[in-house]
Fold these 3 entries.
Entry 1:
Amino acid sequence: MAKLSSLQNHSMPTGFFTHPAFIEHNPGSMHPERPERLVAIEDAVRKISLQEKLVFRQAPKASRADLLRVHDERFIEEISSFCRNQAYLPSMEAEVNEATLEAAYLAAGAGIAATRAVMDGELNNAFCAVRPPGHHATASQSMGFCLFNNIAIAAAYLLEETKISRILIADWDLHHGNGTQDIFYNSRRVFYFSTHQWGIYPGSGAASETGTGEARGFTLNRPLMMGDGDKEIIAAFEEELLPAMEEFRPEFVLISAGFDAHEADPLGSLRVTDAGFRRLSEIVYGIADHHAGGRLVAFLEGGYNLGVLGRCVCDILDVFS
């Protein structure tokens, strides 16, 4: 069992977890979730002096047991078979190729390795530059470019294998993380907070969705309307998430960091800027520093403008380090 430290060690570096296999996963010609996304991020990181402050680590594969903490065994078997056949996976809305299954296991493994390294005091915090993304995947279904739910797998690992008992998952992707919400909807140990554009895929994330049973109030959705931008999304984090965290007091913080809410992204109609995403990073970093001893890991989700993606990930890394 990892020790639960009470204070952040600011002398420790920020981890950057990735793997060459993530670029080999190809969801199809002209697909928005394309390999060039990772290339753009890695190129941007290499071009700035910030890389000297980072520890680069290659993601390991998650084990089958790691996946089973979140996903149904039958689902894992079906996905494995589908990937071997290398066809179009309708629920994922993407093609799968010979690299997809390995990339998915590595994407899940990155989060576990990152959270473990933070728990062990090797890293201050970490960013997982992974694909396929994960927050749409439910326990039994791949969805929306996502195969396995990377952030949920990391959260389940923390709850089962460490002394962590309260986790915040903050999701600022353009799209609601229906899979993550669904997996923890009846849990009091995971607080799920999401800002997202209302009325688009996957159609969930209403403000009335707050959890079930004794976990009512542990899910907080803040739908945004077409044209909303920095003012609205920052207000949601400052006026709704911050007060909620004073009561919940998370011991570890995870971020579903999608950048498709950016004003220049081709998929959405929100108007968040680079400065807006940086402010969100600062707010969530502050929550982790104040409540969780600095324990913080972010996961790449959406974001399909390559220039924006590289800049915004570098901004997060700058805040983290």
Entry 2:
Amino acid sequence: MNARERVLSALERKGYDRIPVHHEGTPEVNAMLRDHLGVDDDLALAEALGDDWRYVQPEYIGPALRTHEDGSIEGLWGERYANVPYGDNIGTYPEAVFLPFAEIDDPAQLDGYPFPSADWYDYATIAEQAEGWADYAVFFGSAGHLDFMNGIARCRGVERVLFDVGSEDPVFMRLVEERFRFFYEVTERVLQAAGGRIDIVHCGEDLGTQRGPIISLRSFERLFEPFYAQYFQLVHRYGARVLMHSCGSVRHFIPKLIGLGLDILDVVQVAAAGMELEGLQRDFGAYLSFSGTMCVQSILPFGTVEDVEREVRRRLDLFADGGLILGPTHAIQVFTPIDNIMAMYRTAGSLREP
């Protein structure tokens, strides 16, 4: 089987030659893995780890995203990011350091704002990119597509967005509509340009904390359900599947997401409340596939090689006919032993060691 055949067969519960896998690591982890495996770039790293996914992306031709005097880099919505160190300077994460909508109290203040446009991209090479990945499962999107709460929080602030959800603030809802319009139009143009060559569209919304839902199901239904329903329908009209990233304890939302047409739930944070893998497979496995499940909070960083091997084998047993794309539950973090990472992919049967 090639990678595309493997992924599609797993999603259709028709078995596979080995379980499909997807890798995600922080830049520091990926640099460590490249050095260990003797490869030069992240594409070669994906090949070495046996990653079955490949992405297509339209070319950005919009207004220049400036680097400001403080070193922060402008995002599409006018927000700015800086690489902020964590731990004992062991790595960095890009964090929002300027929030353009933080003080907006009236939707009229957004009139005339230069919101991003689907016209800011050139889609001419999408079909060629997809054709170049013909042997792989071809993806478009990311966990940041749609991603209403996280995405708007990076422009307005996390605390304010949580209040916005509870109060159904009209400024927040205007920003939700603008965000939906942008991602819907970009996605439709990519799908049109691809001519049926995209297998999976990737979007996201972090709906859970470690202990439970971050918002109520009622709030999701009132604020976000109509947008996700339209987006999922769009993807299905072009013959692709939808993969939705959501961290945390999201079991409460799964029946609703299945009803809306979700095909694959990513990243399945098994350490969160209610996210035990056996229960998810038992209760939802006939209707929903899963992606991720190898915990970056426990087994991968703090387990032994034998622990990692056992967890992978447990997944091979649970999903013997398919229904799972194996990978980490977030980007693998810098304190994770390289032997554990190698053990995950080796036991999955995907690792190509030098």
Entry 3:
Amino acid sequence: MSKDLRNFDLNLLVVFHALSEEAHLTRTAERLHLSQPAVSNALSRLRDLFEDELFVRAPKGMRPTPKAKSLTQPIQEALNLIQSQLTPVDTFCSETAKNCFTISVNEYAELIDLPDFIRMLRASAPNVSLDIYPESNSTNIELIRSGEIDIAIDYLPITGKELVKELFYEERLVVIASNVHPILRDKLSTGLYTSLPYVAVRPRDHRGSHTQIILGKKSLKRNITMTVTNMLAIPQIVSKTDMLSIVPKRLAEYFQSFLPIAIHALPFDLDRVPIYMYYHQDKVNNQAHKWFRQQLLTISNL
């Protein structure tokens, strides 16, 4: 490619990068805050520059040509290098910082994890504040992209090429029931588990609860008698009925300290539930965000 770089517009590489991730003209225009004709014009200039179609129409958007695929990584690396030089070195001092961090978590994490976490934050960063969003749903991906949510913590996968996925911790599950259950006394068998009335959490985003997702691999049916919207209601319900349920071990231990419930080991082998932390790749080297991620990771050790 014998082109004069003096006349080259670097913004074309930004459009190329966005097209390679979005594979759609309209979404690329929205992402870059440009009009669709402007993106089309930039694509035309890119085609002239590289002497290739680069992106061709497909049933659901745009499909990269082999040439475009070969250019994707080098252009990404070039943009990262340029951005690193243009971005001033940021510093972060937790003692004086006044940042407000937004995270999305479920009600269980709010009850079990956040009280100790905020106590720790108050000691190390007294002027830092937290804004808690409900656990991730289909719209929170857009909030992460826009920067309204710094970090999403979830057991359900959040998909997006520009997101970083990091293992947060692994949750152990147990069965809880009343400690004066009329039938369940000692060791819980698989037969009792599948036959006794069960209280479940309503699936979120039509994708299933953590228990449903894992049990689906085992083809175990439960005698679901009641479905609730909030996991925190389950210990109260099982303490006063003949129902049982599966909940995170730390939640069971918390409620056992003041409710008449018994904790039983699962009657079958079950993998721990991986909980992930999701954030935008633009935040990877942000010093304030990096510090906050490190603080959050201490939750798994609390």
